[in-house]
């Protein structure tokens, strides 16, 4: 109760300055103490040495006072000032709006390039080649930039998907046909490239978006995947208590957050 009264009294002020030792214990105590105050009121005073007593003895009262008066507002979740983006602003000013990497299609690059931490939605009528286009696109960036992809393809079995990627790598058909078929050696060489650059989710039953993202996060940690392909999104299990537009919006939001937070150097692609 005594502590609660002290907190209520301190919160009456416009701001509260917190200053702790600069070692690990001090930083830990700072976080715990800061959580007791409204975030907008707390300010943090930093010291160039372990504690205030060292500051006082070595530099005097004036510099200790300056450190207190120059306390910085505690960072707020989701809220930033222009100072937090100064380096990015300078880069934009000096170098212009950055482009992503080439798609491998010269005619497409003038309109679209692959940028990191971005959600990309590929749409179109059925049987227009969306899945083939996305597979070729991620193959191009794997070959040209070494980017790794995790596929969640509900309509394409992993073995057949591997055969498709093998054809892209070798430039010959995987199956017998009217043109020369790839050799066993070429097939095996392509398999090594595919192993190094692609992972496949193999859900035996339907999967919800959270399960897909959990597996994708493991792909990022295990293999360093930069791209997640979900194809097609309408196969994803959805709750029945929402209208379809809300369900789709929720899925895209979760994928967008995943791309920005977990695939920090990646983009997520959803083909429908």
How would you describe the overall organization of this protein?
The protein is an alpha/beta fold. 47% of the residues lie in helices and 11% in strands. It is built from eleven helices and eight strands. The strands form two sheets. A five-stranded parallel sheet has the order 4-8-7-5-6, with helices on both faces. Helix 8 crosses helix 9. It is elongated, with a radius of gyration of 27 Å.
Q: How many strand elements?
A: 8
As residue ranges, the low-confidence spans are none
Helix-and-strand structural type: alpha/beta
Radius of gyration: 27 Å
User: Tell me about the biggest sheet?
Assistant: 5 strands, parallel
- Note the total helix count: 11
Proportion in β-strands: 5-15%
Percent of residues in helical segments?
40-55%
* H/E element order: HEHEHHEHHEHEHHEHEHE
Gross geometry: elongated
Overall residue-averaged pLDDT value: 84
Q: Strands across the major sheet, in which order?
A: 4-8-7-5-6
Identify the notable features of this structure and list them briefly.
272 residues; elongated
Which helices and strands occur, and which strands form pairs?
Layout: H1 2-10, E1 16-18, H2 24-34, E2 42-44, H3 52-59, H4 61-69, E3 72-73, H5 86-95, H6 106-109, E4 118-122, H7 130-145, E5 149-153, H8 158-170, H9 184-197, E6 198-200, H10 209-223, E7 227-231, H11 244-261, E8 267-271
Short précis:
With 272 residues, the chain is of the alpha/beta class. The chain has helices spanning 2-10, 24-34, 52-59, 61-69, 86-95, 106-109, 130-145, 158-170, 184-197, 209-223, 244-261; strands at 16-18, 42-44, 72-73, 118-122, 149-153, 198-200, 227-231, 267-271.
């Amino acid at each position: 109760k005594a502590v609660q009264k002290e907190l209520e009294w301190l919160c009456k002020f416009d701001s509260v300055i917190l200053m702790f030792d600069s070692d690990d214990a001090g930083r830990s105590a700072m976080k715990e103490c800061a959580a007791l105050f409204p975030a907008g009121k707390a300010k943090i005073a930093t010291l160039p040495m372990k504690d205030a007593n060292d500051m006082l003895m070595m530099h005097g009262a004036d510099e200790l006072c300056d450190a207190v008066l120059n306390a910085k507002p505690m960072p707020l979740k989701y809220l930033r000032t222009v100072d937090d983006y100064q380096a990015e602003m300078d880069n934009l000013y000096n170098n212009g709006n950055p482009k992503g990497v080439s798609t491998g299609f010269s005619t497409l690059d003038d309109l679209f390039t692959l940028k990191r931490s971005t959600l990309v939605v590929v749409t179109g009528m059925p049987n227009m080649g969306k899945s083939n286009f996305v597979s070729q696109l991620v193959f191009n960036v794997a070959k040209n930039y070494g980017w790794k992809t995790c596929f969640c393809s509900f309509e394409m079995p992993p073995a057949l998907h591997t055969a498709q990627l093998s054809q892209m790598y070798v430039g010959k058909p995987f199956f017998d046909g009217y043109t020369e078929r790839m050799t066993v050696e070429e097939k095996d060489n392509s398999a090594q490239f595919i192993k190094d650059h692609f992972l496949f989710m193999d859900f035996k039953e339907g999967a919800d978006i959270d399960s897909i993202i959990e597996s994708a996060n493991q792909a990022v940690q295990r293999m360093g995947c930069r791209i997640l392909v979900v194809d097609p999104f309408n196969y994803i299990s959805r709750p029945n208590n929402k209208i379809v537009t809300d369900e789709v919006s929720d899925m895209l939001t979760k994928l967008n957050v995943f791309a920005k937070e977990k695939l920090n150097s990646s983009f997520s692609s959803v083909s429908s």
